[in-house]
Amino acid sequence: MNREQFVRAREPHWEKLSALLKRLEARRSWRRGGRETAALPALYREVCRDLSLAERRMYGAVLVERLNRLAMRGFHQLYKPRARFLGPLVHYIAVDFPRTVRANAALFWFCMLIFWGPFFGMIAASHVAPQWVYSVIGPDMAAQLDEMYGPDTTRVGRTVDAASNLEAFAGYIQNNIGIDFRTFAGGIVFGLGTLFFMIFNGLYLGAAFGHIHRAGHYENFYSFVAGHGSFELMAIIISGMAGLKIGLALVSPGRWTRAEALRVRGREGLHLLYGAALMTLTAAFIEGFWSPSGAAPQVKYIVGITLWVLVLAYFLFAGGRREAR
Amino acid sequence: MKLDTRRAVETPEGVELGLRVAGPVARLTAWFIDALIRGAVYYGIATVAGLFGGAGLAFFLLTVFLGEWFYFVFFEVMRNGATPGKRSCRLHVVHRDGTPVGWTASLIRNFVRFADFFPFAYGFGLVSALVSPEFQRLGDRVAGTVVAYRDAPPGRDEPSQHEPLAPPVALAIDEQAALLEFDERSSNWTTARRKELANLLEPLTGAKGQEGLVRVHGMAAWARRPS
Question: Who is most buried in A283, B15, B35, B51, counting CB within 10 A?
Answer without folding.
Answer: A283
